[in-house]
């Protein structure tokens, strides 16, 4: 996750934006950069899947694969529509289906909106997308990440409390200071010898 | 002194474009995305728009020459044109696009041709006015 180290630092979201219109790509990129997001823009659903490593070409580059916190896609695109891209992502049985997907469209068609939301879209934005829309979206995603982080740290604390006496939980850090141990960094090995 | 004058001139030009119904709120939204690091963002976007839209106009022109009009194709092309126009706040041009699409959906060839002529006029007129606007903004 593209989140800064310290828990108090504001997380930087990585947004993947998909739009076949060059003008719209430039605008959404600017909107996101101004909102302090890391942005990757692509021109089609196919390219988006390639970027995520979901195109079946090469197995996603392991856990080094691209981390994306949000996908914003145009609805009407030649080839693969935004709706089709949404479906493909939500069909993934992995981390990818967890990524929130937002649909952007210039057409305010209720049936279209319903269909997208039913398929799992996080939100449906009317174009042209405004700065206020992006800010609202970002706040929502960040809140979700914070909650997720809190849940995870609570889990960790709980498991430490429940574990047996420390000597039994052989973690590298609890081993006696042996300079020859390869687990220790050269610097701490030096310190141990002093 | 000079910059104050051109700033006032710029504001007047912009107001006029709004008063004539040629631009809408989206143009202001784009201006808010400008800063010291990106001082010409609006002009860049508008330039990209005119590059895109010129290409689309040619395609639509070609499509309108066909013996049997492909209204689906025309509607798709116009949808793209409308989207691009909407993104720069081209209010009147956007309205002409909607009219054209209505004629498409009604299968009205005559209506399409007529509204397309009008659309081209509006498109060219706005382009000229925006060029003048950016020229003053660069002073």
TrEMBL record, chain B:
Entry's Gene Ontology cellular component terms: cytosol; nucleus
Entry annotated with the keyword Transcription regulation: no
Domain observations: Histidine-containing phosphotransfer domain (HPt) contains an active histidine that mediates the phosphotransfer.
InterPro entries assigned to the protein according to its UniProt record, in alphabetical order: AHP1-5/YPD1 (IPR045871), HPT_dom_sf (IPR036641), Sig_transdc_His_kin_Hpt_dom (IPR008207)
One annotated GO molecular function: histidine phosphotransfer kinase activity
Annotated organism of origin: Cajanus cajan (Pigeon pea)
Function per UniProt: Functions as a two-component phosphorelay mediators between cytokinin sensor histidine kinases and response regulators (B-type ARRs). Plays an important role in propagating cytokinin signal transduction.
Domain HPt residues, every copy: 38-133
Any one biological process term the GO annotation gives: cytokinin-activated signaling pathway
Positions of modified residues (Phosphohistidine): 79
Classification via PANTHER family: HISTIDINE-CONTAINING PHOSPHOTRANSFER PROTEIN 4 (PTHR28242:SF43), PHOSPHORELAY INTERMEDIATE PROTEIN YPD1 (PTHR28242)
Keywords noted in UniProt: Cytokinin signaling pathway, Phosphoprotein, Two-component regulatory system
Protein name: Histidine-containing phosphotransfer protein
